Amino acid sequence: MTDATQPLDIAVYVVVPPCVLLLDVAGPVEVLRKANLEQDRVRFAVRYIGPSSTAGSSIGLAIAGIEPLPERLPDGAIVVVSGSTETPLGGDPAARAGDFALNALIVEWLRTAIRPGIRLVSICSGALLAARAGLLDGYDCTTHHACTEDLAELAPAARVRENRLYVEDGERLTSAGITAGIDLMLHIVAQTAGHTCALAVARYLVVYLRRGGSDPQLSPWLEGRNHIHPAVHRVQDAVAADPARQWSVAALARLAGASPRNLSRIFNEHAGMSVSDYVNRMRAALAREILTGSRVDLETVATRAGFASTRQLRRVWNRLHDQPPSRMRGPFPPTA
């Protein structure tokens, strides 16, 4: 039996190809670094691996201290394959003649190292290495818009999706160009460490936490977050962390360091909705999670989500959803 107080350690192996696109590494890993600082339930242990102990980068900065490609990966590991370029800043493309052999070593390693239970994450053109290893065949995937034709040629059995920030298909996660790697890693952090952590990391990076292009609609946990107003974010963070709490505008105004009237004004201006509407949306999102993960009765759902009654839950729910709460039930046994 595991100790619930011990953090979940997730091993992350970042594959560094020759002439790596530096932002493909720095962006996603910075997400993980900040996620480790924001919470202690999940720890991302990052290691940099590759076919050579050193590598050049897209901006001309040399990278050292790269570990050899390991013979075996631990269960539950995440392998991140970064993209590369043939035209580094201030470099001579002709000097990249040996890169093909190094990339071939990565492809062969991927082919043998990736097994069920290992999540393969490709950033930008890193998908091409995964495709050469045959690891995207039969999967939905994407890559940088300039590489989609190459990806389709290298992985004819894959379903290449264009105009997507990222695509998740089972244990294969692929992202579009450059900064989309940050979006994908924020998505992974939200899955493993929670929405609140991912939102805090996104705000630290001064990026809007976006969804993948295949998602039918914006997650309610992300609505109203496309701004950088610190006081409004403090209020939203507090509500998202504990939607069931009986929040008043006055209490939230104290958190924001504003008067209730001013909070209402700036909240509408930056979040695009009222404070009470935001609280109710978070409670409805929590209610939906309870509904899909248990068989408790609707009255209990309403209470756990912070609603005063099932009538209030239904009233808020009907404004946000076309189907009644009962349609959200998942295939789970009854729970207390």
From TrEMBL:
**SMART domains for this protein:** HTH_ARAC
Top-level taxon in the UniProt lineage: Bacteria
**What Gene3D superfamilies does the entry give?**
3.40.50.880, Homeodomain-like (1.10.10.60)
Which UniProt key words apply to this protein? Transcription, Transcription regulation
Q: Which GO terms describe its molecular function?
A: DNA-binding transcription factor activity; sequence-specific DNA binding
Which Pfam families does the UniProt record give?
A: DJ-1_PfpI, HTH_18
All copies of domain HTH araC/xylS-type, residue ranges? 233-331
Cross-referenced InterPro entries, in alphabetical order? Class_I_gatase-like, DJ-1/PfpI, Homeodomain-like_sf, HTH_AraC, INH-QAR
Q: State what protein this is by name.
A: Helix-turn-helix domain-containing protein
- State the species of origin: Ectorhizobium quercum
